[in-house]
Amino acid sequence: MFAADAASRGLGIELLSAGEGAAVVRMTVTAAMLNGHGIAHGGYVFLLADTAFACACNSRGPVTVASGADVSFTAPVHEGDVLTATAHERSRHGRNGIYDVTVRRAETVVAEFRGRSRALGDRPRSGGGRTSGA
C-alpha cells in the first residue's frame, strides 16, 4: 500500500516498519511545510500520523480505510525537525479498528492521533491510490 502512496512519498515520508497492526514512519519538516507563524502546519503533522495509521491498519491484509480520526498537537514543530510516527492497533472488532499514533521529535511528543478504521472485506487491493487516510 505504501508503495502506491504518492502523497506520503512525495513529502519524503519513509516507512521504517509495518506489520501485525503496527507501523513506524519518519519525515523531515521542510520550509514548505511551515505556516504563517513559522512552525509546521498541523496538516503535515496529521498527514504523517495518518500515514502511520494507514500502514498499520492495512498490515493485516484486507483493504482498510479511515472512518475518522482526531489529533491533539502537544508541542510546536520547526523546520529541520525529524518526526517519527509510531502506530499501534488498540482494538479490532468485526471490520472496525481503533489505532493510536504518537508523533515524536526525538523523545518529545508533538502530537497524539487516534484513528478509526473500517475494513472493506475481501476486496482485492488496486494498483494505485491510498487505502486509508483523511
Characterize the structure shown.
A hairpin with a 2-residue loop joins strand 4 (82-93) and strand 5 (96-105). Mean pLDDT is 91; it is low at 127-134. The protein is α+β, with helices and mostly antiparallel strands and 134 residues long. Strands 1-2-4-5-6-3 form a 6-stranded antiparallel sheet, with helices on one face. It has helices at 6-10, 42-57, and strands spanning 14-19, 22-28, 64-73, 82-93, 96-105, 108-119. The protein has 2 helices and 6 strands.
Q: What letter string, H or E per element, gives the SSE order? A: HEEHEEEE
Count, helices: 2
| Radius of gyration of CA atoms, rounded to a whole number | 14 Å
Structural class category: alpha+beta
Bin the strand percentage.
35-45%
In short:
The protein has 134 residues and is an alpha+beta fold. 16% of the residues lie in helices and 43% in strands.
Comma- or semicolon-separated keywords:
134 residues, six-stranded antiparallel sheet, 2 helices, 6 strands, 43% strand, alpha+beta
